[in-house]
Amino acid sequence: MKKIVFLTTLLLTTALIKAQEDMPVVWESRLSHQIIWSGTGVEGATSYAASEKDITLFDNATGKTIWTKDFGDIAPKLRKIDELIPFWESKTIFLFERKLGKDQIVCMDLATGTSLWSTDKYQDVSESSVTYIAEEDCFALTQKKALVYIRARTGEELWSTEKFKGVVGQYYYDGSSHTMTMVNFVPGLLESLFTGFKNQIVRINVANGEILWENTYIGRAERKVITKEFLFDLSVASNKVFLRLNGMQVYDYKTGAQLWSAAFDFTPEKLVGKPSGTKVFGVYGAVAEPVIDGEDIYVLDMVSKSKQYVKKYDLNTGKLLWTSREIKDARAIPGMRVENGKVLLQIGGVVEVQYQRTYRSGDQMVTETAIVFKNVKPFGIQAFNATDGTLSWESERFKKGITNMISFGDNAIVCSGKELYSLDITNGKEKYSVPVSKGGVGLAQMILPFKDNTIVVVGEKGVSTFNADNGDLLNSGKYRTSSLEGVVGNILVMKTPKADIGTFDLNTCKYKDFKARKGATTTLTNEGDFVYVYEKRTVTKLSTK
């Protein structure tokens, strides 16, 4: 009897495996050279792949090669290519031959593969030190002693200034006055270039580099080390400059005078240990963003490792309306929401870690680029009254673990990793709890909202969905050990340590699979409908639907 049961189980498992679809191949293109560098024009018509000697531009729709060129023909001045950096908005690529103090740069047109200009004037240029100003078709290029402004297509230097130190971060361009308001920052890789660096927010005349006004800001402006997203936001409205960076800082647009500030300095890197061989590293999402609710703004103030508060300000005047009691010993507060007259805080839980490292695997040196999610202790959920900042309720349920918190209407949904909990936002009372194991995809790495009432559980081995109203399991798709790669619309992508990818339809949790070679590079398009995979000499375009 046991043999019959075992055989039946085996047959069912085999049937399920066979029923599982592979991702449809739209096209597969084998290049004439190896792929060391690659770039996918997710919003454009073309992409590229390159070795140390050759580069190919191919058509995104068909995979057909548009051109393949030898770097020696494109850039005769370069004896070898040490690095390649694309600037997609400007449709150019920088080619580098690195020499100590004598770097050679060639700016190549991406569409034609021809050289636009070359120079050895600028040293220690990296992707982090160049900002493309689309409104002017110019590059703002950071050097140790000066900020240099050059035309993208010709390399003509228009001006330089020693009064602005660091890299141009996010900026606001004013075409009527031909000015830019911008914030400086220093990426980790460039820290050794600058001594005596200070935080600057400036308004500058783009025609000649004259700084019209200058002020300082609190905190550390930066971009994510892998995905390059800005970790701050600069905007101008009602003749005010709003800088959202670890709180909010507001300046007068005409004079640069600071009107009010509710900001703090916080460095999250030490929350998570670095893997061995790490070159670049960053921890993100450890402090929740400010929440604007009508004419009010709620800010987390991480004064120190042992002193944290919620503060409510009048958005227009900066007047402090209230300060909550101390939130003791919270090393990270990734989540803050204002719902139904309550300010909800998620203490501890999932933070994002991005890094690039080099390590030895057998006889080869492998470069690994990763985006992973780690848990930071201690854990808890607290709710404060939005009217006066007094503590409304606190849940002891999550002392042992939290991944993250989301909300649907009057309900806060909190995941402990093992369990889903629905809490009434008004009083913290538990409406239901459901084991994540119902979904059959291992422990939850995080939860996500989908549509109006669906909880998505991103598990260790797949994806499951639950009804937010009652906790009922809706759908489940079991996969291999993997982590979240990206989400666009109803398509969620999981990636294994060996670079295999599964694309899940969140409406059904059915997935399509692609087994890639270890070390393969994958890119999900902005619409979530295709994935590009780069392996050795082959580029493959896959459909997620």
Proportion of residues in helical segments: under 10%
- Largest sheet, if any? 5 strands, mixed
Question: CATH topology of the domain at 266-399, which one?
Answer: Thrombin, subunit H
Placed side by side, the strands forming the largest sheet appear as 1-43-42-41-40
* CA gyration radius, whole angstroms: 26 Å
Categorize the overall geometry.
Answer: globular
Low-pLDDT residue spans: 1-19
Q: Which class best fits the helix and strand makeup?
A: mainly beta
Distance between the termini: 42 Å
User: How much of the polypeptide forms β-strand, as a percent range?
Assistant: over 45%
Q: What is the number of strand segments?
A: 46
Q: What is the arithmetic mean of pLDDT?
A: 89
Reading off the top of the CATH hierarchy, the class of the domain at 266-399 is best stated as: Mainly Beta
- Write the CATH architecture name of the domain at 266-399: Beta Barrel
Number of helices: 2
